[in-house]
Amino acid sequence: MTESLWIMFSGAFLAATLLPGGSEVLLAGLLAAEPQAWLTLWLAASVGNTLGSLTSFWLGRLGRVAKSPEELASGGYRRALALVQKYGVWSLLLAWTPVIGDLLCVLAGWLRLPVLTSTLLILIGKTVRYLLIVAAVLHWAI
């Protein structure tokens, strides 16, 4: 069981950084093998994914000197930047979404949004997403 938790934690952590990964599929597979471990797998996924997003957040903070607002307003950043500028820290409730979620975290750090509020909203979005996955997998497994 401990091995499954580390696999879930590390898979969720890596999936939340700018590296590609499918932590949802990993969680579903581990739940299918160990349905009784749903609570600890859910927590491992939520914490790992949140910490991965915070890594992106801090990389955004560190990159503040590397990019100007004009550079960020062009290309692939434009949509995510507009979302963060419009909704501020609340946009981080969508940090779980594929592709744009990673950018939201990087831009939140780049824009120096409040760390504690950002962390809380990222955690809420990710835990709710994983809880829905757990509920769906366990429901269909019955």
From TrEMBL:
Residue ranges of the TM segments: 37-59, 87-113, 119-141
Source superkingdom: Bacteria
Name the record gives this protein: DedA family protein
PANTHER family cross-referenced by the UniProt entry: ALKALINE PHOSPHATASE LIKE PROTEIN (PTHR42709), INNER MEMBRANE PROTEIN YQAA (PTHR42709:SF4)
Keyword Transmembrane helix among record annotations: yes
Pfam families, sorted: VTT_dom (PF09335)
Coiled coil: none
Residue span(s) of domain VTT: 25-136
Native organism: Shewanella corallii
Transit peptide found in the keyword field: no
InterPro entries found in the cross-reference section: DedA_domain, VTT_dom
Annotated keywords: Membrane, Transmembrane, Transmembrane helix
